[in-house]
Amino acid sequence: MCHAHEVPLVETRVKFWQSDSVQQVVSARGATSRKLKTCAIRDFNRDILLCLAKGVHWLLNTCEVAPGPQSLRLAYLTALQERGLARSKIVLLHQTSEFLQKAVGVKLLRALSCQLEVDDAHNWLSKILRVSRSARAAQAPLKHLLLMSALGHGVESFFDVMNQCPVPVVGKISAQDKPIG
User: Fold this and answer.
1) pLDDT value, residue 177
2) In this predicted model, what pLDDT tens digit does every residue of 30-42 receive, in sequence order?
């Protein structure tokens, strides 16, 4: 998707290979012998693709801010509260996972290797929303861009929301309205 012209760069079919394990290592010979799944770009949410393209462009060319995980989490919490997906400082993880799948689309999440198991209390979304100083909890920027886009924000507007948030406060995540951790 071209961020400036808002049109798909290639009007062809995209092919992707999806394994059960994102961290699976495959040899070059093995990768070429795998059967690829085909999906058309038109099958994906155009608004999300455009938001991702603009976000990547802004992050690479304009952004001068390097927010920490606590600042990001507080901004996510604020945006989730606006949509009724968080109460106080408790995120409703199951509902938020369903919201993300509906907003982005299961096919696009799968094509980007960002599939989301709604009933998994330890999915990548929960790792983004938990307060953790561990490098193991860090998630790929693409996953952050997907969440921001689903919440109706481009990266730049999301960073504006983040700058308006008060000092970060630690909260909890809930799989089914019950605090965990």
Assistant:
1) 44
2) 555 555 555 667 7
Q: Within 13 Å of residue 96, how many CA atoms lie on the same side as its CB?
A: 33
CB neighbour list of residue 106: distance below 8 Å, 6 or more residues apart: 115
Sign of the dihedral defined by the CA atoms of residues 75, 166, 127, 17, in that order: positive
The alpha carbon of 129 is separated from its chain's Cα centroid by a whole number of angstroms, namely 11
- Residue 6: CB partners within 8 Å, gap ≥ 6? 50
Contacts of 19 (CB under 8 A, 6+ apart): 26
Token output for 11: 């009007």
Give the DSSP per-residue string, the chain.
--TTT-S-S--SEEEE---S-TT----HHHHHHSPPEEEEGGGS-HHHHHHHHHHHHHHHHT------HHHHHHHHHHHHHHTTSEETTEEEHHHHHHHHHHHH-HHHHHHTT----TT-TTSHHHHHHS----GGG---HHHHHHHHHHTT--HHHHHHHHHHS-S----EEESSSSEE-
Q: Residue 19: how many CA atoms within 13 Å on its side-chain side? A: 9
Q: Which of 153, 12, 180, 2 is nearest to 79 (CA)?
A: 153
| pLDDT score recorded for residue 21 | 47
Kindly indicate the confidence band of residue 169, based on its pLDDT and cuts at 50, 70 and 90: very low
Alpha carbon dihedral 72, 131, 68, 84, in 10-degree steps, equals 10
